[in-house]
Specification:
Helix content: 25-40%
Structural class: alpha/beta
Number of helices: 13
Radius of gyration: 21 Å
GO molecular function: transaminase activity
Strand order of the largest sheet: 4-12-11-10-7-5-6
Distance between the termini: 37 Å
Subcellular location: Cytoplasm
InterPro entries: AcOrn/SuccOrn_fam, Aminotrans_3, Aminotrans_3_PPA_site, Class-III_PLP-dep_AT, LysJ, PyrdxlP-dep_Trfase, PyrdxlP-dep_Trfase_major, PyrdxlP-dep_Trfase_small
Number of strands: 17
Family: Belongs to the class-III pyridoxal-phosphate-dependent aminotransferase family. LysJ subfamily.
Enzyme class: transferase
Largest sheet: 7 strands, mixed
Length: 387
């Protein structure tokens, strides 16, 4: 069997250099566990950076992919398709508002499409986003993203974007005006430090948008599909957006995104946007199987219960380097008093994979199917490295 060292050396020789890679070669996964080329097992709290809510190699999704791969993989949206029609109907049936849906290939593509649709529907061009917000790395999504280290190397970006403090309804109200096409918000800031929206903030944003005639765009690329304890995080507030942006776990780890446009806006004009691969039959089959699994296994409820249990257990440890623990469902962040990177390596050495969320927040994104026994091991590893 090929070793970690061989895989790492080969990939390092040819890769772009863009990614700060960790020294492990993962070759197999099952549920919430991953295995490297040397046979070591890891508990996955990276969760495909939010794309593996169903864990790895979920049997229903694997079966759907295998069947569709032997039937038809490519069918652009200039033609109708049975898998696409079935998935669109299923997704529309679980959305918290009536919608028309555009299918694409990633979270950044969903954001880009949502921004274009907002300008098209409003006839305006300005977009208000938030400090610490992260919406992607393509030029439009990057313009909405706040963190200077992502933005500055690529300036000048798309004009017409402004940023206000997250959670401050008064600051948002003062910035939205008759030129504002859209307000773009995350219900929980993930990359920005795992910060749930304060009570009443999303409702206030909806009121502000209505008063000024702007569209409300909700970015659920990371929080969608059960992560926060509801199928969609906006359901915690009851707020209905004009446009909902989805990706990551929509197709159980395969590259897919979706933009749901409220039915009140009607259908979009033909040719205003498009994509070659969006809505292809293979991904629609995978996404349909994933959506059914979220329902059949009651995974949003599981995320709510496991997340509350995990927060309670971590809080009770009173870990010395931890300033604050926050989260919603199985999206959990530990804000540290120091930089997070050394602790990520220490956790890897303990057999736990975790993420940063900014320079000093340790983020946990385990698959929703994770068992309590694995969560106990995560807690033990955190206690070891943070004591």
């Amino acid at each position: 069997m090929i070793s970690n060292a061989t895989i790492i050396a080969t990939e390092q020789q040819h890769t772009s250099g863009l990614y700060p890679k960790r020294g492990v070669a993962l070759i197999r996964g099952e549920g919430a566990r991953l295995y490297d080329a040397d046979g070591r097992v890891y508990i996955d709290c990276v969760g495909g950076q939010g794309a593996a809510n169903l864990g790895h190699c979920h049997p229903a999704v694997v079966a759907a992919i295998q069947a569709q791969a032997a039937t038809l993989m490519s069918c652009p949206e200039i033609f109708y398709n049975d898998q696409r029609a079935a998935y669109l109907q299923a997704l529309a049936g679980v959305l918290p508002f009536p919608a028309r849906i555009f299918l694409c290939n990633s979270g950044a593509e969903a954001i880009e499409a949502g921004l274009k649709f907002a300008r098209l529907l409003s006839g305006r061009h300005e977009v208000v986003a938030t400090m610490r917000g992260f919406h992607g790395r393509t030029m439009g999504a990057l313009s909405a993203t706040w963190e200077p280290k992502y933005r500055e190397p690529f300036a000048p970006l798309v004009p017409g974007f402004a940023h206000v403090p997250y959670g401050d309804a008064e600051a948002l109200d003062n910035r939205v005006n008759a030129s504002t096409a859209a307000v773009l918000l995350e219900p929980v800031q993930g990359e920005g430090g795992v910060r749930p929206a304060p009570a009443g903030y999303l409702e206030a944003a909806r009121t502000i948008c209505d008063r000024h005639g702007a569209l409300l765009l909700i970015d659920e690329v990371q929080t969608g599909f059960g992560r926060t304890g509801r199928l969609f995080a906006l359901e915690h507030s009851g707020v209905v957006p004009d446009i909902l942006l989805l990706a990551k776990s929509i197709a159980a780890g395969l590259p897919m995104g979706a933009v749901a446009i409220h039915e009140r806006h009607g259908s979009l004009p033909g040719g205003a946007h498009g994509t070659t691969f969006g809505g292809n039959p293979l991904l629609c089959a995978a996404a349909h199987a994933a959506l059914q699994a979220y329902h059949d296994e009651d995974l949003p409820r599981q995320a709510a219960e496991k997340g509350a249990w995990l927060l309670d257990r971590l809080t009770a440890l009173h870990l010395p380097p931890v300033r604050e623990i926050r989260g919603l469902g199985l999206l959990v962040g530990l804000e540290l008093k120091t930089r997070v990177q050394p602790y990520l390596q220490a956790l890897l050495d303990q057999g736990v994979l975790a993420l940063p969320a900014g320079p000093n927040v340790l983020r946990l994104l385990p698959p929703l199917v994770i068992g309590y026994d694995d969560l106990e091991q995560v807690i033990a590893a955190l206690q070891t490295v943070l004591s």
